[in-house]
Amino acid sequence: MRTVVVIGTGLVGTSAALALAGRGIQVHLVDHDPQSARTAAALGAGTDEAPEARVDLAIIAVPPAHVASVLATALRDGIARGYLDVASVKGGPRRELEALGLDLTPYIGTHPMAGKERSGPLAATADLFEGRPWVLTPTRDTDTEVLNLALELVALCRAVPVVMDADAHDRAVALVSHTPQLISSMVAARLEEADETAVRLCGQGIRDVTRIAASDPRMWVEILSANPGPVADVLAGVAADLDETVRALRGLQSDDDARRREGTEGIEDVLRRGNAGRVRVPGKHGTAPTAYEMVSVLISDRPGELAGIFADAGRAGVNVEDVRIEHATGQQAGLVQLMVEPSAAPALSAALRERGWSIRQ
């Protein structure tokens, strides 16, 4: 692969362009908003000038509702040897393209499982896809050369290829991406009219749950409109769990011993099933999740504090596997929670104390 055209210079399109340009690929940027393409070009993602000849690969990075029309135009114009899209829904666009009667042998649907709450070219980074799954949905008609181009793209972006059926992909993302977005937004919506006293009590738990609620509503309306059935199916299951949980909580309010026992069992059941589901979420590098030990360090809000902690952990010979920061409301301080291998936690705690850090149990 030597030349690529990216049609759509939002977060995903520009991130892919940055990754490719950084590895020596000639990237041409196209967007319905010329200013967006110019912004991406200014970031080093390529050039907003049109290619002079047919390119090796065309990456269609537009919302799901526009994939079929944009891709159909590109196919008819013959701008590339191979074509792929990176939309978050795969079955619907494929069926739209088939209905147009186009030759789809030079096309493959793909979806990189990476994103942010922010959108647009300014949110893009060349490392957005590193280590993340990138789904490929070839059919029996997909040309081998196009599949190879898609695999090369995934490798250049340092992602991990995953081959799936398009409809199976849509059911999967309904569970692991689209429904969590809606539930996060629903929880955050409870805060809109909440008393200010309650809002001031927000801690790390509510911050974790509502982080993705900051996403662009217009973007998500387009995504959910392209995958409504599978998302509704998952939400129906969540709604059933909610009904059972509400009944269990009402049972805990009862004066009847049997109802209280049923309530306790109901709450325990949903929490245990939550534990079992959480264990299945892949851990670091896509491996089985590891039970890390947490070392909590009190820090002040001053430049260099985080760098100092990581430097001292390195001097102690301890690898920090993950990190979280819990901010103290209304104070210039917080807790840095360092996740490390259980066997390394005592040594790290001792080393940090020796270097003057305040460790919290």
Could you give a short description of this structure?
The chain has 361 residues and is of the alpha/beta class.
3D structure, described in words:
The protein contains 13 helices and eleven strands. Helix 6 packs across helix 10 and helix 10 runs antiparallel to helix 11 (257-279). Helix 3 (64-77) links the parallel strand 3 (55-60) and strand 4. With 361 residues, it is α/β, with parallel strands linked by helices. The longest helix is centred in the middle third of the chain and has 25 residues, at 228-252. The protein folds into three domains: 3-164, 3-Layer(aba) Sandwich (Rossmann fold), CATH 3.40.50; 171-279, 6-phosphogluconate dehydrogenase C-terminal like domain (6-phosphogluconate dehydrogenase C-terminal fold); 293-360, ACT domain (Alpha-Beta Plaits). The strands form two sheets. It has a seven-stranded mixed beta sheet with strand order 2-1-3-4-5-6-7, with helices on both faces.
